[in-house]
Specification:
The chain is of the alpha+beta class and 420 residues long. Helix content is 18%, strand content 31%. The longest helix is centred in the last third of the chain and has 19 residues, at 299-317. The model has no long low-confidence stretch (mean pLDDT 95). It binds adenosine monophosphate and magnesium ion. Magnesium ion is lined by residues 181, 246-247, 251, 297.
Length: 420
């Protein structure tokens, strides 16, 4: 058996970042910039008001309250038609350009008006008050995002504000998923004797999509060398990587092994990893360097193995720098038993953040590697090193699969109330 790290050190270097492509910003959420973005204009583009109020000359308000003559108004989207001279003010709305001569805005709540022509500014406003300066968020010519940035909705907003329509990104890896095994049938219809429905393919396709990769369904292939060879060759021709499940352990009909050994020209490595679930793992490249992840057939093992090996490799292909889920430290809510067997156990578990900030961990259901239901209820994998496990109240590390799942089940952040 080899360690998880050793298996990964074989897998990851073969997963090379994909050739960058120009992509519409609106399609590129979650993709990684292959080239920096330099601002071609400033944000904000011009000095504008942060408040509804009156644009003034700060020095006219030093002896507040000050009576000023209202010489015009400017709304958001307009260009100012008048300047602010000595003893004058211009009514201004949030986002409207600051008129020439003005250097501050007094918010409307600190003013009084007797008629349309005059305003009393009740407080002193310093120069720059309530003024948004051009380029104070992003300066013209500045590198706003470096290569390697993963685009979030915030990035999309900044790029839109800059007028950027397309970006150079590593495209989403196109990942073909197939299931192997004579026992598998597609869902729908009754179940013939001895057959089971294919769950791995659907769950793996979902994992692929959840990770922001592009999923291609390559169907079910029986334990037949010729059929398998055709499926892998066709898959490699249209996909950046292939994920298969089943046929990688030591069973009788391990045609997958025979076929992949041939197609990979011997690069395929058949591993026994010291981890449970997910012990058998095959990895190599076919065609001209297309990575093939041969995941175990047992449903939980397939999904866990995807998390440990395929997802990080595919993220590397997507140009990501952070390849792994975060590891948090939690507290066992109950005894987390295991037996010593020379492997790291990944317990399907539920982690909940309690109001005091501790993360409480408990199993999410039955732990057999065929018991998929506990995977559905898990938002983390508790890492139980070889040994007897962790007693209730003990520290346990966990691989966080779903950060949203840590949150409370009822609405509300539990934040202290602010009063204005
Ligand atoms: P194998 O590694 O092919 O011997 O498969 C190990 C176990 O996983 C067997 O019980 C298979 O029936 C089961 N299995 C393999 N592929 C799938 C699949 N796509 N969906 C559900 N179970 C599967
Ligand atoms: Mg099989």
């Amino acid at each position: 058996m080899i360690s998880v790290e050793e298996a990964r050190s074989f897998v990851l270097p073969a997963c090379l970042p994909l050739t960058p492509r120009q992509m519409a910003v609106d399609e590129a959420l979650g993709c990684v910039l292959a080239r920096e973005v330099v601002a071609g204009e400033p944000i904000p583009p011009f000095a504008n008001s942060a408040m509804d109020g009156y644009a003034v000359r700060a020095r006219d308000t030093t002896a507040a309250p000050s009576l000023l003559a209202v010489v015009g108004s400017v709304m958001a989207g307009q260009s100012p038609r008048v300047a602010v001279g000595e003893g004058e003010a211009v009514r201004i709305m949030t986002g409207a350009p600051l008129p020439p001569g003005a250097d501050a805005v007094c918010m409307i709540e600190r003013t009084r008006t007797q008629d349309d022509a005059t305003v009393v500014v009740e407080v002193r406003v310093d120069a720059g008050t309530n003024v948004r300066h051009p380029g104070e968020d992003v300066a013209d010519g500045e590198e706003v995002f470096g290569a390697g940035s993963c685009l979030s909705p915030g990035h999309v907003g900044v790029l839109a504000a800059l007028g950027v329509e397309t970006v150079l990104v590593h495209h989403r890896p196109v990942v073909g998923v197939l299931s192997t095994g004579d026992e598998l049938v597609e869902r729908g219809g009754s179940l013939p004797p001895g057959k089971i429905r294919d769950s791995n393919r659907h769950a793996l396709l979902a994992q692929v999509r959840q990770s922001n990769f592009e999923a291609v369904d390559l169907g079910i292939v029986g334990d037949d060398a010729e059929e398998l060879a055709v499926a892998f060759e066709r898959g490699a021709a249209r996909c950046d990587a292939l994920v298969t499940s089943g046929g990688v352990s030591v069973g009788d009909l391990d045609m997958v092994k025979v076929v992949l050994d041939k197609l990979s020209a011997g690069t395929m490595r058949w591993m026994q990893v010291a981890v449970k679930p997910g012990k058998p793992l095959a990895f190599g490249t076919v065609a001209s360097g297309t990575p093939v992840f041969g995941l175990p057939g047992n449903p939980v093992a397939a999904l866990v193995s995807f998390e440990l090996f395929a997802r990080p490799g595919l993220r590397r292909m997507a140009g990501q720098r952070r390849l792994d889920r975060p590891v948090l430290s939690g507290v066992a809510e109950v005894d987390l038993h295991r037996r010593s067997d020379g492997t790291l156990h990944l317990m399907r578990a539920t982690a909940v953040s309690d109001p005091g900030g501790a993360v409480l961990v408990r199993p999410s259901g039955g732990q057999g590697s065929h018991m998929l239901r506990a995977m559905a209820g898990a938002n983390c994998l508790a890492l139980l090193p070889d040994g007897p496990g962790v007693p209730a109240g003990g520290r346990v590390e966990l691989l966080l699969l779903d950060a949203d799942g840590l949150g409370p089940e009822t609405a509300g952040f539990g934040l202290p109330e602010a009063r204005s």
